[in-house]
Amino acid sequence: MLLSVLLQAATAAAGFGKLGATIGAGLAAIGAGIGIGKIGGSAMEAIARQPESTSDIRTNMIIIAALVEGAALFAIVVCFLVAVQ
């Protein structure tokens, strides 16, 4: 009796874990999209204010966008690994 109750509780917890991992992966993707959008908008504004430093701003923008994308990819992979367990 107790064993069957514990087994049902463990099964329900696994479902909640997958749901949480799915929500976490979605939030990571949305956060990365918002972050890269803000980076692009700020870079365009900075280029409009100082056109002579376009190459420096563009280089920094690409580096920061790559770091944001890498962090988001890491978060999504961690969420999927949690969902598989």
Task: Label the overall shape.
Answer: rod-shaped
In the predicted model, the low-confidence regions spanning at least 5 consecutive residues are none
Percent of residues in beta strands? under 5%
- Which architecture would the CATH scheme give at its second level? Up-down Bundle
**Main structural class:** mainly alpha
Tally of discrete structural domains: 1
- Counting DSSP E segments of at least 2 residues, the number of strands comes to 0
How big is the Rg? 21 Å
CATH superfamily: F1F0 ATP synthase subunit C
Look up the CATH topology: F1FO ATP Synthase
What is the chain-wise order of helices and strands? HH
Tell me what you see in this structure:
By secondary structure, the protein is mainly α. 93% of the residues lie in helices and 0% in strands. The chain is rod-shaped. The two termini are 26 Å apart. The mean pLDDT is 86.
Brief summary of the model shown:
The protein is mainly alpha-helical.
Give descriptors for this structure:
rod-shaped, 2 helices, mainly alpha
Which helices and strands occur, and which strands form pairs?
Elements: H1 2-49, H2 54-84
Helix pairs in contact: 1-2
